[in-house]
Amino acid sequence: MTLNVSVDVNGAVIGSVEITNQTGGTTADSVNTYAWTYLGEGDRKLNGLIDHRYGDGALVLAANVVERIARRYQLVAHLDHTSGDVPSCPMCAEVAHV
Ligand SMILES: [Zn+2]
Questions:
Q1: pTM over 0.70
Q2: Average model confidence (pLDDT) for the chain?
C-alpha cells in the first residue's frame, strides 16, 4: 500500500509525500512500519520510517508523517539561529517552558 499526500497552494504543489507500507499487516491491530519520502520546494528531500497501527487509518498516518516533516523544518530553522531565543520560533518557546 502506498499513500500519497500532496500540499497545494493556489494550484501549485509545494510538497508531496509518498508513504509505503513495508510490513503489510492488514488487520486493525497490525502495527506496520512505513517508509516515507518528502519532496519539497527547491529539491528539498527528507525521508524516514514510522510505525502506525493499521486500524487507525490513512488520515492518522498522513498527519503523523506530516507532523514529523514539519518538526524537522522547525528544528533546522531553530538550529540556524543559535544566538538566543527567537519569540516566533516554536522550538525556542518549547525550550523556555521546560
Ligand atoms: Zn529557536
A1: yes
A2: 91
Q: How far is the CA of 52 from the centre of ligand 1 (A)?
A: 29
Ligand 1 centre distance from Cα of residue 86 (Å): 5
How far the first Cα of the chain sits from its last, in Å, is 39
31 alpha carbon to ligand 1 midpoint, in Å?
34
For residue 64, how far is its CA from the centre of ligand 1 (angstroms)? 22
Q: Exposed/middle/buried for 59, CB within 10 Å: 0-12, 13-18, 19+?
A: exposed
The candidate with the shortest Cα–Cα distance to 27, out of 63, 4, 54, is: 54
Cα-to-centroid distance, 66 and ligand 1 (Å): 20
C-alpha cell at 5: 499526500
Q: Provide the residue count of the chain.
A: 98
Task: Check residue 61 and give its pLDDT.
Answer: 98
